[in-house]
Amino acid sequence: MNEINIIPIGSGSTGNSIYIEILDHRFLIDMGIGFRKIRDALALHDRNINDIEAIFLTHGHSDHTKAAKAIANNTSCKVYADQSSMYAIRDINAERVILESSTTYEILPGLKVRMFPVPHDYVRTCGFVFEYQGKKLGYVTDCGKMNEIIIDEIAGSDVIVIESNHDIEMLKNGPYPKDLQRRILSKYGHLSNDDCAETIATLYDKGSRNFILAHISLNNNTVQLAYDTTANRMQGKDITLYACKEESVDLLSF
Length: 254
Ligand SMILES: [Zn+2]
Ligand SMILES: [Zn+2]
Description:
CATH topology: Metallo-beta-lactamase, Chain A
Number of helices: 9
CATH architecture: 4-Layer Sandwich
Helix content: 25-40%
Radius of gyration: 17 Å
Bound molecules: zinc ion
Structural class: alpha/beta
CATH class: Alpha Beta
Strand content: 25-35%
Order of helices and strands: EEEHEHHEHEEEEEHEHHHEHEE
Distance between the termini: 9 Å
Largest sheet: 7 strands, mixed
Number of strands: 14
């Protein structure tokens, strides 16, 4: 049996929801993809949406929350998030549990969860680390600038989901107005392919080998370019690399 299974159901500009299994625990990160797409992606792999035990929310931007109502109406999961992110889903019909950053919780039996702050232009944006029976998974998207605190939190993870949002040249020459370009490039924006590749090189040196590139921009990047940027940086190194499409039913096993 594979110990960590991931279905990147939605990742990128239009909507983010990623399904994660660590051994017998099953949860969802973010609520930006419709209930039916999640249900159908899980069913393809003989998983039942009713077996999802919890939902974790990184922040309150709509590409992470827009399906919250539909998901909440069709599941009985509790939603775990920072207080500011809860505000974005205050109308949904689900039990909500506010978490504090940099505190370790045991939310599901034996599963340790820590949230940590990530620089981004929502009030408070968070990444996560999950640890269960010796397995560790790190999750960080919507990150304007990588920093040592984040690296320390996710270092040593068996699998790391990390943002590879844009190619800097594509963004600068692309269709977005200048002020939006500046926002994305700022330290409260999104992580570029180059910064992602550098971060992965650092995390490799700290022992991680499996990386999933997430939140790849539709307009300022391509899945291939994101993949190639990290693959080139890590040439000759023994890593497993996967770049997420906008939507996918792929089951990634580690
Ligand atoms: Zn965001
Ligand atoms: Zn986002």
